[in-house]
Amino acid sequence: MQPYEELVSELTYRSFMHGEAYQNGGTPYRMTTKKPLPYRDLVKRAAGMIEDADCILVGGGSGLSAAGGGDFYYSDNASYRAHFGKFAEKSGFKGAFAGSFYPWPTPESRWGYLATFLDTTINAPLRQPYKDLDALISDKDFFVLTTNQDTQFLKIYPWDKVAEIQGDHRFFQCGNCCTDEVWDSVGPVGEMIGAMGDGLEVPSDLVPRCPHCGREAFPWVRGYGNFLQGELYEEQYRKVSEWIEAHRERKVLFFELGVGRITPAFIQEPFWMLTAQLPHAHYISVNNVTQFLPEAIEDRGIAIRKDIAKALADVRSDMGR
Ligand SMILES: [Zn+2]
């Protein structure tokens, strides 16, 4: 197991021990009692910390994509209706994830929905918060760790700069995990979308299947109980572990964006631990719901509670980029 994955496992285990502390969106870690600076001062501090860093590890969570318009996963809103309108009218789903967990009666109907779901992310334009973030970090030695499966980071950065530890919509795996192989989903999704037209189901011969056992394929993502944790998965943890190891003595900035309360042990809590452990590390978090700054790193970090799109744009503007 790679060092970063070991850290995640340990913190996940610890989070189960303190389950009640997470209820109602809390955390078991001791938080600073210092009052946060006013927003404008936090923006200036963030700009200064970015300038001052030798290198930056970005941690991108669901809030980052939601801030840029990828906000249709958990609610029935205007963007959900725009992408999933033909399903929304019949189904009553409250957001895109509801349909991806729905027990569809046939493979053809399941893939009508899943292809639509994957098409919305694979073919989405690069969203503004990602562009603003890029303006902040692109002249630095940086690396990106993300739990987002929507491939936004891969639209601007090469494969070796990004670790996608919860999967990636551009790949299919065997639904039964019979093989370690994953394969391209982009071509098959395009064919399904084209063949479906305004309908709700794909033709039977386009239902994606495992080339080895013939079972239905599935997107390579965590969340459905069959996530393939093989070589591709190991590679993600290897990339981030090696980056941290190579930079541990430098002035590393841990830059956490939009981590929600579902999986704090993947990005947020490791970032807290590493900021405390590494000799010259600093930490910034931007979140539109929480403002968590652990006491252990209160002199080395800031937490900004703000709409992420707005905060990134403001830091960018403060830096004159
Ligand atoms: Zn198979």
Strand order in space, largest sheet: 3-2-1-7-8-9
Tally the helices. Answer: 12
In the CATH hierarchy, the third-tier topology of the largest domain is known as Rossmann fold
Q: Which cofactors or ions or other ligands sit in this model?
A: zinc ion
Mean pLDDT: 96
Integer-rounded radius of gyration: 20 Å
Characterization of this structure:
The chain is an alpha/beta fold and 321 residues long. It has two domains: 3-67 and 126-166 and 229-318, TPP-binding domain (Rossmann fold, 3-Layer(aba) Sandwich); 78-123 and 169-221. The protein is built from twelve helices and nine strands. The chain has helices spanning 3-17, 19-22, 39-52, 62-67, 78-91, 96-101, 107-122, 128-137, 186-196, 231-247, 268-277, 308-318, and strands spanning 55-60, 141-146, 162-164, 167-174, 183-184, 217-221, 252-257, 282-287, 301-305. Zinc ion (ZN) binds next to loops. Residues 174, 176, 178-179, 210, 212-213, 215 line the site of zinc ion.
